[in-house]
Design a protein that fits this description.
Deoxyuridine 5'-Triphosphate Nucleotidohydrolase, Chain A; four-stranded antiparallel beta sheet; 1 helix; 11 strands; globular
Length: 145
């Protein structure tokens, strides 16, 4: 079953959301404004849309893998979480970024991406003195070779 996201576009120049030719199930988000930033500046870049997610879903927004290389920007909150209550006409998605070099971003530059996920199911926490499993070597111990 396909889910529906209602979209309000706030910029007529903005390309419409779409899958990128079957490459991924993440969907690109584009800058809705021209931005010039100096190294060390922070800015909320408008993504030019408001959304109404299906009931029971949330949206995860992350930078594209090329955002740092192409623009020298990092997303300051690492990922963004949009819940289904953020659905008003003026609840415009924005990407909080920090510039590590002087840069320019233009309308329709692909700077972020998103996917939607069902809300986490209710879970119960059970305290244990021992988990009874073999240790993998601690945090940061994999992928060193």
């Amino acid at each position: 079953m396909k889910e529906t996201i209602r979209i309000r576009y706030h910029n007529d120049q903005l390309e419409r959301l779409r899958y990128i030719d079957g490459k991924s199930d993440w969907i690109d988000l584009r800058a809705a404004e021209d931005v010039t930033m100096k190294a060390g500046e922070f800015r909320l870049i408008s993504l030019g849309i408001s959304v109404q997610l299906p009931a029971g879903y949330e949206m995860i927004i992350a930078p594209r893998s090329s955002t740092f290389k192409n623009f020298g920007l990092i997303q300051t909150n690492s990922i963004g979480i949009i819940d289904e209550s953020y659905c008003g006409d003026e609840d415009i998605l924005r990407m909080p970024v920090y510039a590590l070099r002087d840069t320019e971003v233009h309308v329709n530059d692909r700077i972020a991406q998103f996917r939607i996920l069902r809300h986490q199911p209710a879970i119960e926490f059970e305290e244990a003195a021992c988990l009874g499993n073999e240790s993998r070597g601690g945090f940061g111990s994999t992928g060193t070779k």
